[in-house]
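Q: Entry one of two.
A:
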Amino acid sequence: MKPQVDLTNCDREPIHIPGSIQPFGFLLGLQSDFTVCMASENVADYLGRDYTDVFQRPVTEVLSKAAVDAIRARVDYLSSPDASERIFGAPLQDGGRPFDISIHFSGVYLIIEAEPSVIEHDANSGEMVRLMVSRIRKTRGVTELAQEAARQLKVLNGFDRVMVYRFHPDGSGEVIAEVATSGLEPFLGLHYPASDIPAQARTLYTRNWLRIIADINATPVPLASTATHSAALLDLSTSTLRSVSPIHIEYLRNMGVAASMSVSILRDGKLWGLFACHHYSPRHVSFERRTAAELFGQMFSWVLETREREATMAYETRAHQIQERLIEAAAGHEHSQRAVADFIGDYRKMIECDGIAIWSNDEITLSGETPTEREVKDLVGFINRTSPGKICASAEIGKIYAAGESFRDRAAGFLAIPISRTPRDCLIFFRREILRKVNWAGAPGKVYASGPLGPRLTPRKSFELWQETVHGQSAPWTNAELQIAEGLRITLLEVILQLADLAARERKSAQERQELMIAELNHRVRNILSLVRGLVTQSKSTAASIEEFAGVLGGRIQALARAHDQITSLNWAPVALKALVESEAGAYLGARADRIEMTGPEVALDPKAFATLALVVHEMMTNSAKYGALADSTGKVEIAWKLDQSSSLVIDWKESGGPPVQPPSRRGFGTTIIERSIPFDLKGDAELRFDLLGVHAHFVIPANYVEMVTAMTGIASKVETDKAAPPRLSGTALIVEDNLIIAMAAEVILLELGARHVGTAASVSQALAAIDREKPDFALLDLNLGSENSIPVATRLTELKVPYMFATGYGERAPIPAALAAAPVVQKPYTREVVEAALVRLREAVPAKG
């Protein structure tokens, strides 16, 4: 249990826990034996008995058995210190009115808070939150996400003003999004000093997702207890009804706010910002709607975290790709120091900056906007003295390095990365000064006044615009940039220490690859020459005339050329496996290619895999034609392929009916290609067996090189259809609908169909006003709007030549004037498919009108 602390004494005390609650509910504190040990003094207003009458009584004498059983069932779910459980619409006494209940532990006490249930028959908070989250997920960027979230929260809880308030690293805050009732002074873009929300309050915002003040003029209700249970010592940090600091009440009163609600926005468990809701008259929001707002705040936090993580990951991925290319390129340098300086342009692509300095081997290399060589040398000395061997960064150089004030216009921010084990060499990124004007809501300095206990912090009384020009600062270095810098530091150390060895190994590897390529080329040329000579001989022996000989020989040589073209194709599109086998078979067998039987699904191979397998098939076909089943007129080859459970391609080659097979006395280059190419190049498998009755081979190509196709004839080709694209919306859409849930569902559909922005109106007057403010590009009109219909809106849209469609919940078509009869009518409840089909009809009708 924490003692009560008066925050007004100073701003370094522990969390302030007022010993009172807001008057729209009551509190009971229970000991482990479930007797009432404390209560709020307004118990009588809700339970019909004086609060002194409940002390030291079993809870079953205060609450009904059903209520106690419901509370006991929820206690088991309180698994963490700040956990709470909620029960909605539960009577606390037999025949009594229903209450919304919150349950949590506070030290040894079980705290039960209850407030009268507010029955809202037309509200479905769960469905609203679902639609709210669906809407914010359609946005792009943090600013648009925050603006849409503020709009959705205003719709949910009806406050006059909803703001998204973001904290900066220095503790100050900025309003980055705002939705307010017309006529209110805008707060968007205003900054507030860190002292407006002290550390104690920020800690509570982290522990509590939501806090509400229904009426700043309401008198808090004190807590009372027996002598053995001091209510003044009770920790109410996670209480839903806890009253707030009188300083905060005074702060709101100075702003003219009568009611407020805040919803926390957390990022990685830390306070990123707040939804700040203001109302200029008292406003109590039901517990169920507050719970929905709290859930929405949690979902918004997760969406925000995902968005920021995706942006960070994309930035880091791009930097890592540059880093990998840098490592590959650096391997070709003979001198490590020169390599580091030569890639200065790549460093600037990894981390955004205005200039770079490299200090290495007592030499300076500068690029972009930087200090002078002398200034950089002095800065390096300062870095090595104060932060040796570690990354050092600042967005305001003058704060940590006084001499930096002289060149802050060129380099106000710096990020230094050590690139040697001794504190000497380093790579420094610079950012220039950004002169900016910050709009504060009143002077940002703290205001103190003298009180009974001496000087104390008081709430500010002026919120007039106060503008400050910020000097000597650059754009801040983000956490992602610091992580990239650390990765670059490790990479450069490895490059410098291992570059010579890598270069030597690369040269040796290149020499070996060159020798292999020469041997392969020599082998291929000799085989091709032998093959051409054999083709001439075979064609001559079967040809009846010179013309027939020329045609047969030309066709076979052309088949060889097609196979070679497949291997060396420059378009690098996936190529059919069947086409590969057919090309190689045609080169050898011509009209007798039916001696090769192929079975298997239609698959295409990645260019790299296709080139490797083409060499293997070529060698298999060559050997078969020379020594195997294709060497005489009776043999045949069966080639079967399939996809295994991991989607890898399995190819089985089986020869039969040819001359007896003898294993070769030595393994030549062709056999090496068959057995080692696929395992080495593709990380697959290859097995070659020389059985007496015929050669058997088994190959496995990993799934990442294989692509299924629906149809294949020879070489794989893409088939494009002229299917008309489905109709899409663009620009602004207007929904006229008197039911909020239906309007929100329709809003999601129109956004999915391409609308950039969707506005809603619940009546004819609202719709006409919206059209006058901004002409929409499309409209969806509910024909029946309670006591009126949307015909006047349709008439106005027709005059403006804006396309629209009607929606109705009636089974038969409602009467529509003849002048508007061309508009499509969709039946409720409608889906995206229904609206899409109506858009097709609407699109087809447009030319007829013209």
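Q: Entry two of two.
A:
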Amino acid sequence: MDKHYLTPLFSPKSIVVFAGCNADSAPANSQAELLIENFKSGGFSGPLTYLDIGMSGTLSDLVKSRVDLAIIALPNEQLCAALEVAGSIHCKSAIIISRGVNASEAKKMQDISKTYGMYLLGPNCMGFQRPAQHLNASTLGRMTQKGATALVSQSGAVTNSILDWASSNGVGFSAVVSLGDHSVIDIAQVLDFLAEDAATHSIVVYLENIKNARSFMSALRAAAVSKPVIIMKTGRSQVSAEATATHAGAMVASDEVFDAALKRAGAVRVQTFVQLFAAVKCLSARYLPVGARLAIISNGGGPAMMAADWVKELKLKIGKLSIEATADLLPKLSNLASVTDMIDLDESADAHHYSSAVNACLASSKIDGILVLMSPKPHLDINGISQALADLQPTISKPLITCWMGDDQVASGRSILNNASIPTFRTPEAAVDAFHNIASFHQNQQLLHQVPSSLSELAKPDIEGARILIENILAERRKVLTEMESKALLSSFHIPVTRTILARSANEAILVANQLGYPVALKIDSSDIVHKSEVRGVALNIHNATGVRDTWLDMMATVSRLKPEAKINGVTVQNMSGKPDGRELYIGVRTDAQFGPVISFGAGGTMIELIADRALELPPLNQFLAHRLIERVRSAETLGTWRGAPETDRESLERILLRVSEMVCALPQLREIDINPLILDANGALVVDARIVIEQTVPAHNYEHLAILPYPSDQETEWPMRDGNRYKIRPLHPHDAEMLQTLVRNLSPESRYFRFISSMRELPERMLARFTLIDYDREMAMVAMYPERTANPEGGFTVNEKIIAVSRYVTNPDKSSCEFSLLVADEFNGQGLGSRMMLSIIDVARSKGLTSIEGLVLAKNAGMLKLMRSLDFKIQIYEEDPDLKLCVRSL
């Protein structure tokens, strides 16, 4: 069932319009007038009917026709009635173009659409445009040009501004969708549709808010698997007003979390409207993701240096020609040209010089993109140079971005470039920014492809012990753990901590210090004190009992004076870290209102807020993500050999980050974690101080507190074959792509046709990505892994695993049913593998709360239909195609 459920909305074959009494009468209001004008000028050629909400005579005929889309543009008091009529005549989808509908009225419309099973865009939206289908169902003005970039916006004003700009810059769109503040169909569902829309090659989103972080991340990851996605979100200055009890809670703003989420989803965020326009320009030229090496070609040194400075600022790289390519290019340029870091063609450069330089860069494997700069000079043939680049455009395989500086003299040249779909900008910085967006997408794809296990492969943590500790603290109606409790929780996940014992008197402190051995550190213990150093509640390197006694007495007196309302439990005594060459680091966790837990890492110590050196990542982590998280902070430079201190043990730091990720995955009660400082040296890492905040939560199932669902490693099982061999069933992983491709290549033509209803010999790259980079929240794919033994020439055997079967389901939009598919290697047919694979996904679907599973099978695929009957599926006629059978089973 490949047709997307929103196809009737965005690609309707038939439409009814509610905008007045009938097609010949006056529109109901100004919005209806504009809608009808735009709709008629669009040229939609399918069946079209104009209806009035009071009409009844034609309803019986319309019920039989099952219209795809109802467009409603009426006064607000008539919207619910019109939606009822649309539901009564079995419209599959509806769009309500309106303004000023409040939340309660919007809820009524949502209920009506649910009752009739309609997909509703609106209310309070301005509609959508589909230029290739000549469909302008909007009040957004005249139809935009046809293109390959989709625009989705939660602001009608922003949408109109972009369309106005696009009309004069040669930019077209595959779809333009304006979402209102109460739209039933949200941004995630639109992204879902565009991810599968063949006419859409890239997506630009203007975002103001999201309803559900997990569904948004799921849809965004699905879209970004194969299409560049650029997002601009407002509200960057907003910070949480919630009171916090740790550094993580105080320092990490919601906007930073959103940034981290977008990177993890494989999308790119731009910060300004100018950058958004730049992104649209580049994406309209269908530039694919590339590396970060940008070649700069110019007819003057000044502009080239301006571009180079911005390249450095954005952490890109200057793309340079090889020695051989340079030697080949120089004879084709002016005698005054310079080809070193940048290609300066000199002010006498002509069209031939520009073409030669661009061709040299296109042929170089050391260059990922090309920036061509031109500043106007007397007698310079600007149009000739522009036309030379336009002539090259059909053969260009790398991003080619231009910057024609100036205004009047270069205006006609810019028009030539726009008509050739070559992005052109007015300033070097804007042009470099545009390339940075493309390069960032390439970098973020690496994060998208990471699917971490729910737990690392290290020793198993004592999760049950951790839960008991948390339950006991919550039973005492406390949320902030003491230092000892925090360290105990960390220890249950095998995170190394300093030995810490609470002393309630000076004498107790001396006894503890004598037992631990000197030197020791003393710290005030109070859940009411967030930062101990601010009240002089930390003392280090105490070498004898007298020092312990005097420090204990002074500390208690000072803290009581500076923080008289604080409840003081005593003073903790602990060994000094014993790491004189150690680097002070910080690991924190903050729970964001939308995206759930987020892990932060950076420089630690008492000046942590002032230094502000941190990077963020959403859990769950794997080693690649942990490594990238460390590399992104400035203090990573100190982890190597640093000012006489030996190189640190980074692997131990990565393990602790993985352990923290385990904690936030396994314990939804965690709200904030503050590990500061964590001391790292050549011999490993040690947590010196920690503070954890918890909160009572409802029982979480399927990691509901996380925005990204972990790899479900608990679904792995092993089964015997009828021939005595064994195979393992486990969830599909992204690194299985090549094995999955091999399975498809080795199928018989008949098996490939039965599975894909196609004669293709292998999976196209986009389909392979879609099948392997799955979202475990909305779908599941199980693979059967078979150990294949190959004899070695010198004796013995090599064992290599291969995929011999795949079963999967995808959750339907109703969130209660799912669609299945099954594929078994030809040589393993008849061994009960199909039954076992189907039962494995049925079990997973049932555990997710789904109530039914269905799928389409070719009517002549007798073997598959027999299997379906044996598994209690009901075989039904599929009305839309007599060559297919619909197989349905209740869960």
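A: Comment on entry two: The chain has 29 helices and 37 strands. Residues 428-448 form the longest helix (21 residues).
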